[in-house]
Amino acid sequence: MSQQVVLPGFYLHQLAEVVAGYGVNTAEWLESLQVPQPQADNNAMSLSWEQFRQMVLQACELTGEPSFGLLVGQRLLVNTHGILGYAAMNAGSVRQGAELVEKFLSLRTDLVRVEVEERDDDYRLHFIERFDLGDIRQPVLEAIILAIKNVLDFIAMADANACTVCFPFAPDADSGFLQSLFRCRVQYQQDWAGIHLPKELADKPLLMANSGSYRDALEICQKELEKIQQNSSLTDRIYRLMLSNNNSFPSLELTARYFHMTPRTLHRRLQQEDTSYKDILDQVRQRLAIQYLDSGKMTVQEVAYSLGYSEVANFRRAFKRWHGIPPSDYLKQQ
């Protein structure tokens, strides 16, 4: 499945503006990547995964800035996120704003999804890659999470200082710089990526809440989401369905029923998109296998079981086909 990255032109425009600030001729640079000049508006731009990946990698190289993602993220304030940002500005609580992000983040980016997790006094926005971001994982996650933290800062005002931001990799910036950007505690080399906040902050009424404006914005968000879902390929929709179910993958028959078609019709439609149910399931398993192993919390046997393999040997063979080495060797390299 060829991955397309869809982002508002404004986001890519800000990325190019950061690069331009380092004296780079961005028109020539973007032309070499065969990327159209991004406009400072919220119209969607679609790039191939490789175009987007090279854009981020070369931006980091051209600027020589290890914290490039953070420099982009700091430019993405609440008023840059279109109708989603407007809805958040009128939310009645941080919880309501967080649930907006969880449901409608795909209106702004399909690179990650958000799961709101709540346990006792623990309230988290957990950012999960929709597919393996590979060598641009750090700048992308830093940019997106800082952008969402900017939203929380606006709607919760000074109370957002009580948040903690977590990243699953080592920092490329000093603590003072990070504090100036996030205005809260930042922890790197954690086992997850996201924002943690006290539950009392999540439920505190917001001063700027406007229930009428919120309902109107929510209705527009829902219509926009339905439009995206209708226009996306069947392959993408099944891929996302499987990811949302994690280790409880629906069978071909159940998947067909979910999309209101027979298994034969589903198979034919996927053939027209040069893929199959089996191929999509294989890609989802491949992605989740790396995610589970990288977490360091699961054994090879547990990963195999979680991915629906009845025999560990079958998982080992599949992993070696994907990555050229057995999962045990991958763990040793990690």
How many strands in all? 7
Strand content: 5-15%
Which strand order do you get reading across the main beta sheet? 3-4-7-5-6
Q: Per the principal axes of the C-alpha atoms, what is the gross shape?
A: globular
> How much is the average pLDDT?
91
Helix content estimate: 55-70%
- What is the N-to-C succession of helices and strands? EHHEHHHHEEHEHEEHHHHHHHHH
**Could you give the distance between the termini?**
27 Å
Q: What is the domain total for the residues?
A: 3
Q: Main beta sheet: strand number and arrangement?
A: 5 strands, mixed
Radius of gyration: 21 Å
Number of helices: 17
Based on secondary structure, the structural category is alpha+beta
**Uncertain stretches of 5 or more adjacent residues:** none
Structure at a glance:
It comes from Bacterioplanoides pacificum. The chain is of the alpha+beta class.
